[in-house]
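User: Second chain of the day. Same drill as before.
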Amino acid sequence: MIEAILPAGVVCAEAREGEPPPLHPEEEALVSRAVAKRRREFAAGRACAREALGALGVPPAPILSGARGEPLWPEGIVGSITHCDGYRACAAARQREMLSVAIDAEPHAPLPEGLLPDIARPEERPHLAELARADPAIHWDKLLFSAKESVYKAWYPLAERWLGFEDAVLSIDPNAGTFSARLLVGGSLAGEARLGGFEGRWAVGDGLVATAIALPR
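Assistant: Same format as last time:
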């Protein structure tokens, strides 16, 4: 599913239910104290990551985690992992082609009651209401959440700083299947280059909402 919203140059591996293959010992140590569900999710995500890296010609190796739990990719690679109930995926690309790659998948269901004020800025809520009136079959609040998750995943490897839900204003195009994010904080890409926002794509189907961002060089 996510593969359909990624551009050429980005490879994707996806998996549904099933027992994932064993982790590398160094990866196993990262989740040794985690509950069984978290361990399965982690292992399934790493399995997708190795499949995606293999498609890029990268030999299998442990994929460790950074300070905020982000995957630490082999040199010259950018990528992203997502997992939710019944679905796992990884997208990866060569760093010479993409500055950042981010994906997110969520169950296509409404946000839990009371969570929207923590996710949507005041100026985004009328936009969500307008989208819901035009197409009530889509849970636009969950789409906004997923898109902001992708924005953070695209942002953090570049800026190495936290980005909250309140730090980006999103606009969703229901016809083109795209979204744009305007950042309310500054971040450096490289040298003096500044990052003001992202453009992404979204899709809904098979019980999921998925979002993706690929920032080319």
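The mean pLDDT is 91.

User: Great, on to the next one.
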